[in-house]
Write a structure and sequence with these properties.
The structure is a homodimer. By secondary structure, chain A is an all-alpha fold. Chain A folds into 2 domains: about 70 residues, Orthogonal Bundle (Arc Repressor Mutant, subunit A), CATH 1.10.10; about 130 residues, Tetracycline Repressor, domain 2. Chains A and B meet through helix 6, helix 7, helix 8 and helix 9 of A and helix 6, helix 7, helix 8 and helix 9 of B. Chain A binds a DNA duplex through helix 3.
Chain lengths: ~220, ~220
Amino acid sequence: MSAIGSLERSGSSGAVAAQVAPKRRVRDRIFETARQLFYRHGLRAVGVEAIACEAGTNKVSFYRSFPSKDELIAEYLRDQCKVYWQWWDGCVAPYAGDPRRQLEALFDGFVSLTCKDSSRGCSLGNAVIELPEGSHPGREVIEQHKSEMRERLRSLARQIGARDADELGDTLLLLMEGGYLTRLTFSSDGPIRSAAKAVRRLIDSHLAPEPTAHPRKKRA
Amino acid sequence: MSAIGSLERSGSSGAVAAQVAPKRRVRDRIFETARQLFYRHGLRAVGVEAIACEAGTNKVSFYRSFPSKDELIAEYLRDQCKVYWQWWDGCVAPYAGDPRRQLEALFDGFVSLTCKDSSRGCSLGNAVIELPEGSHPGREVIEQHKSEMRERLRSLARQIGARDADELGDTLLLLMEGGYLTRLTFSSDGPIRSAAKAVRRLIDSHLAPEPTAHPRKKRA
DNA sequence: GCATCGTGTTACTTACCGGTAACACACATC
DNA sequence: GATGTGTGTTACCGGTAAGTAACACGATGC
């Protein structure tokens, strides 16, 4: 591994990015490169030398910008959170006041985003598998993020007036996480395609008049 | 799956396992140790030296039993499949002929197993995140396994008489994978607790007389 | 008695990894 | 022109990884 698709890749010396914008700093190039490589190949599979090299610089400059690889990872994860909530808010904003539409829009967006060829699931979710149990500075970022996802989904379920809002919210979280994970195994025609319909079913079920009562139709 | 809860664990040197059975071979000890370490810490985080040492032997004996670490990983994954289907069949067997009860039992078993302290989710699902894209011999094991999970769930959904069996099966797969993945972030009171109820809801929804029609109750 | 098999031991190679030291150079600003 | 800042370069450290060579030893079986 670490072959790595080579993005623009310059020869060796810097003096490449100067084109138009205010001369992208090394730090920014490194971070941007790290984001791509981490997402595509995983945290442990990508070394700092590979990142620096791919960013058109070297390891020394890397360590002038970041105290350690672990800290870069933590910062990467924090950045991913930010991006994630921007996406979330963008899905939800057009339907303010209609939590059901918000949930549906969220999952529609989720499906179409996660089915894209470039998707490799959820960076935060993937990271938790690669990070050693306790210590790593990235762990708490992940845990905090997933807790917030859970809380937001539960909150939307509450706003909808679901009979058991926490259960509905948690079920939706399961659906979402399952979608992310299966994206790595199945190609774009994976089970995630069913997520959008499932959400609607689940909401209906939680809104229906009686509590999932007797329609137990004993299979013919 | 794979109990993993640290079995006997000996001091350091071999000469331990001889107790009663026909003198457990080095290969078996290595494999057993690898199973535990891989599951607990991940594939990349565990080196062959660590495995050999923990098994009370050394790297040389390791390479006399296994051609390479990658091959060991592939074999580990194959073994995990076997264990998994044994567990699955054990859940389902008591309710032969009643696919709905089978699905419910499966998910009840899934929840209680995955909530155990020793659980670190699905070894196959975790592995897919750690394995480089194409080449690794373990990849096809994982893909084949996940495809079979999907197929079995769809089949059960079909037997139930679900209106859209493929959709139901896929949704259940999402739920399951989501449960495995969230297990790594949340402790035992995570969203997976909702999986058992969600299954029943989804089945009801797929069995209900009309297609999720009008009960659209616009949140009062 | 001899060969083979399974295993242990020590030592090694090659490669990579995260991280650092020391030095050089170009440019921008005062 | 001096100074400082940002950057590149070369070389290195200590650690660990996967994988191998050569040798030793005890048990088993012919």
